Amino acid sequence: MRYSCALTLILATGIASAKHDVVERVQSSKTVFEEIMASSDKSIPRDLLEKAHCLVIVPSLKRGGFIVGAQYGVGVATCRQADGAGWTGPSTIRMEGGSLGLQIGGGETDVVMMIMNAAGAAKLMKSEFTLGGEGAVMAGPVGRAATAETDAYMRAEILSYSRSRGIFAGVAIKGSTLRSDDGDNKALYGRAVTHEQVLKGQVKTPAAAAPLLAAISKYSIREKRSSAGPRSTEPALPIVHASYSAARVESQRAYARLAREVRHELVTLPFYGVFDNFLYRIEGSTVVLLGQVSRISLKQDAERAVSQIEGVERIVNQIEILPTSPNDDNIRLAAFRSIYGHTALNRYALRAVPPIHIIVKHGNVTLEGVVATQADKDIAALQANSVAGVFSVKNNLRVESET
What we know:
Elements lengths: L1 H36 L8 H6 L2 E10 L7 E9 L11 E6 L2 E2 L6 E9 L2 H7 L3 E3 L6 E3 L10 H6 L2 E7 L8 E2 L2 E4 L1 H8 L5 H5 L10 H9 L2 H6 L14 E4 L7 H16 L9 E7 L2 E8 L2 H12 L6 E4 L2 E2 L4 H15 L15 E6 L2 E8 L2 H12 L6 E4 L2 E2 L4
Parallel strand pairs: 7-8, 11-12, 13-14, 13-15, 17-18, 17-19
Antiparallel strand pairs: 1-2, 1-5, 2-3, 3-10, 4-9, 5-8, 6-10, 12-13, 16-17
Helix pairs in contact: 1-5, 1-7, 11-12
């Protein structure tokens, strides 16, 4: 009897210790994320955070070696809820092996990764996958440098960031393995749960994780919009203009979820940029794709991405592919410089995908998107009209207060 009691006490102590360790890991992840985001000039761009499907945070990754740096760390992963707003409870993960680019000496570093598309999220939901192998990783942009290579950033499945405490250079992750930590998940959730169940939002979020999710939502533009009140059922669309037929949708909630997911899939497509403009219309379970794109692959990718959304049964793809023309290409570049180079409008260029979209066809320019004021709308049209070779300018820009 004495031995039985002792064994019970040892087991209980071990369980309590495991729970304490994993809660501490969640708290450390929150602290790391908040500290990184608090530096406005050196933080993760919020426009990119809005586009992220999932986040991985690994506090105090242990690394060592010169050039080739073996590493090991534990952290958490969380993904967008199915309706596109809010985050799932965290799933605990381990990061092992590989290297973070050029390393000088040993030490510890904090790592944050953003998974930028559905394919990357699907890989993350596996119990194990290799970064830089199965998952294409690129060093993410920081602060005001976010728009320098937008297309390149949007092609990457994963954008990675690091914050060093020792001597360290480089954030390109190669060869590291991410694997689920099922034992710690059991300690955190109080029962056996799978990595995929957690990241799909099929498990109730534990109270210990609420501060972490609140911290992520604090810096996510989308969460701020979704908490703004009744307008969240028809989300603000600075990049995509949606025309709706809500009466034919079974419920407003299902319609709103579908609208958010369609928009998210479209604006996070690789190569989607300032010279393209997506529109869409929802008719029950049918999604009609509209707008103009400068690449044929974008039309195909849009249909492919939207067709994978739950609840979409049919796609009508009416996206126009803009004709290839050296003259139009010159006008696009000149209009971009004229509009975003104006002192009243250059702040918009700091966003991951600038919101004033410039559609050029046979020398005719159409401006699409959302700006803050009527004055900005008027200035954009004047700047476009000033470009040599432009025959006409149609100003379809909308003002935020009117959307």
